Amino acid sequence: MRRPRAYAGSRLLFDMAESIPPEAEDLLTSAVLPAYLATSVEDRPHVAPVWYRYDEGTVEVMTTGQKLANLRRNPRVSLSVQHHDAGDPEWTVTLRGTATIIEDDDAHREANRTINRKYGADPDAWQENTLVRIDVGSASYRTY
Question: Which of the following CATH numbers is that of domain 6-143: 2.30.110.10, 2.40.160.20, 3.50.50.60, 2.102.10.10?
Answer without folding.
Answer: 2.30.110.10
